[in-house]
Amino acid sequence: MNNMNAAFGAAKAGSAFDPIGYVMRPQVILRFICWLCSVIVFGCISANGWVPKEGSKQGLELCSVIVFGCISANGWVPKEGSKQGLEVCLYNKDNNACRLGSGLGLIGFLAAIAFLILEGVFQNLSSIKIRRRVVAFDLGFSGLWAVLYLICFAYLGIAWANSEKPPFGNGINSCRAAIAFSFFSIASWAGCAYFAHIRWNTGTDMSQFATGYENEDIVPGAGYSAYAGATDQEPTYQENPFTNVPPDQM
């Protein structure tokens, strides 16, 4: 990409939208993977991470929905001795484990959609200040979510290792899928943070924002050229007529 008249790795504002180029961007591909994983995590926890109540609806969005749905729907089982129909999480009966996976999946799902939209309109943002803020938010959020998914992966994995086998094996596959896609989410969000970091470094290099008004033929550090008169001949001066007159003749 030609960096002239570009800011933060995107073309100058007003450029035509290229759908093929948009889909082929590494940021867009990784962002879609983040969306997919968030749907799966959210969906698995929500649908199978808890024991569903009668009449409850199952099936949510993809990566976040799958993680959230698996834990929420099949990751919980009825609490022993409960008379009010309370549910417990299948991850070692730790309700916080289900809530963590569901929350990260749901927020990650919504954030991935928002970033996909921002990526599509990014090159039409004429203000460098707005572009800088978008890239900074992308870098911070993606890095944070990669760390949180690392914590979630470890939390769910340890809790599942200490869990008892649920009745009739209900929700086992969903709980395992939530753990697996939590791991995949670490790599996808970290990749988004990496590309956001590259874009940030590109934007902070102000030498790329040349206006094109400077003359490329001018050598840096060269002095001003002398003023050229009508001719390039050296000026001649008329000699004082009294300079060579002997003193006795004055």
TrEMBL record:
It is a multi-pass membrane protein. The keyword Membrane applies. Keywords: Membrane, Transmembrane, Transmembrane helix. The chain crosses the membrane at residues 28-47, 100-122, 134-158, 178-196. It comes from the Eukaryota. Residues 22-201 form the MARVEL domain. GO terms for cellular component: neuromuscular junction; synaptic vesicle membrane. The keyword Transmembrane applies. Its main location: membrane. It is found in: Membrane. Belongs to the synaptogyrin family. PANTHER family: SYNAPTOGYRIN (PTHR10838:SF20). This is MARVEL domain-containing protein. It comes from Medioppia subpectinata.
